[in-house]
Design a protein that fits this description.
InterPro entries: Calcineurin-like_PHP (IPR004843), Metallo-depent_PP-like (IPR029052), Metallophosphoesterase_sf (IPR051158), UCP008292 (IPR016538)
Shape: globular
Strand content: 15-25%
Organism: Nocardia neocaledoniensis
Low-confidence stretches: 240-244
Number of domains: 1
CATH architecture: 4-Layer Sandwich
Radius of gyration: 17 Å
Number of strands: 13
Order of helices and strands: EHHEHEHEEEEEHEHEEEHE
CATH class: Alpha Beta
GO cellular component, one term: membrane
CATH topology: Purple Acid Phosphatase, chain A, domain 2
Largest sheet: 6 strands, mixed
CATH superfamily: Metallo-dependent phosphatases
Distance between the termini: 20 Å
Domain Calcineurin-like phosphoesterase: 1-204
Mean pLDDT: 95
Bound molecules: fe (ii) ion
Pfam family, one: Metallophos
Number of helices: 7
């Protein structure tokens, strides 16, 4: 199964056609395209229309999560609907199962959020603002965990915008790690297992890491992968196949 992925394309209202030419032969290289959030610059409907036009009808299924930039104009619900109207599956605490070459590819996704990593993280304590900040991560990590738990597929991928681990943040200033991801996302992934975890958001990070449980993590923020999309080839493991 060839899984193409990219995040942080940050398309503006004037970006129409920027990615489309490079995506024309996507079906020759991949069976599915995953979008790891920050599809827009400031989350306007005009930008989302450009995103929809760039990624609609590519000849392979497109599955996305939104990023923090896509929330900036408080239009995330409309953006989700607009992308869905163009055949792009947008996940938030939900999962989808696609059939690829007769095998089931399950993708569970959430935007995720910050909070930091074990020993250096926010907690839901004190001022209401702090409790809300920390609780948002907890809620979205729970959403990812239950979406993963409900999947029955031969290959499973966890798709987030924020990072589930700190490995892939190397290159970013350590002071901002708590705004780049949360270990709770990594725990949600390890609790249920996955064959691959994809995220974006850390433009100055590195591509490769693993969760504490040993699951491969790839930061596909476009400035990190330095190409239109990365492709990861996964063999069906049958680990979640219902009849075995
Ligand atoms: Fe970004
Ligand atoms: Fe981001």
């Amino acid at each position: 199964m060839r899984i193409a992925a990219v995040g942080d394309v940050h398309l503006g209202a004037d970006s129409g056609g920027r990615l489309r030419p490079a995506l024309a032969d996507l079906p020759e290289h991949a069976d599915v395209l995953l979008l790891a959030g920050d599809l827009t610059r400031v989350g306007t409907i005009a930008e989302a229309k450009v995103v929809a036009a760039e990624f609609a009808d590519l000849g392979v299924p497109v599955v996305a999560v939104l990023g923090n930039h896509d929330h900036h104009s408080d239009r995330a619900g409309e953006i989700t609907q607009l992308l869905a109207d163009h055949g792009i599956i947008v996940l938030e605490g939900t999962a989808t199962v696609l059939t690829v070459d007769g095998a089931a590819l399950g993708i569970a996704g959430t935007k995720g959020f910050g909070g930091g990593f074990a020993g250096k993280c926010a907690s839901a304590f004190g001022e209401p603002e702090m409790r809300r900040f920390a609780s948002h991560t907890v809620e979205l990590a729970h959403g990812l965990e239950s979406a993963l738990a409900g999947l029955r597929a031969d290959v499973t991928v966890a798709l987030t915008h924020y990072s589930p681990i700190s490995d892939t943040l190397h290159g970013e200033p350590p002071e901002i790690y708590p705004f780049l991801g949360s270990y709770l996302l990594g725990e949600a992934i390890d609790a249920n297992g996955a064959d691959l975890a994809i995220h974006g958001h850390a433009h100055a990070g590195i591509e490769r890491g693993t969760t504490p449980g040993g699951i491969r993590v790839r930061n596909v923020a476009q400035p990190v992968i330095g190409t239109e999309y990365a492709v990861y080839d996964l063999a069906p493991t049958g680990r979640f196949a219902p009849n075995r």
